[in-house]
Design goal:
The chain has 7 helices and no strands.
Length: 149
Amino acid sequence: DKLELAVICSANANPGATAVAVAAVAAALVVEMAEADQRKNVAFYLKKIRQREAATWEKDDLLDVIYWYKQVLGVAFGLLWGVLPIPGFLGFMSAAILSCMLTLATYKSVLGIDEEDYGGHGELIQEGLPGFVSSFLLTWTLTYTAMHS
């Protein structure tokens, strides 16, 4: 409907009507994209994870799963490192290395994907790393301070 309206307005060469029609088409596309993203909720991703090798992953979906996986790891490691009083550089590096190893194990063993189809090890391990570091450092610092000050 809206695309037809844009074509009709363009054919009439009315600049004002054409601009309105183009804006309407753009708004319709944004709404369609938002609705498509809403269908990809937690249940959608959990279902794909349970399918393991039988699931087909779009690159963006896989990167979303890895991103949020690392956020959860960051908070969990931050809580654990704060409670166990693991301080300093050793604590930070051990969490970063363990996060990368668990991410590698997850997409190789649990999800059963071929990393070369999704940009290689580097891209998959880097995905969500800044968010992991942020959530880890915040949680670690707050927990360590609360437990040992």
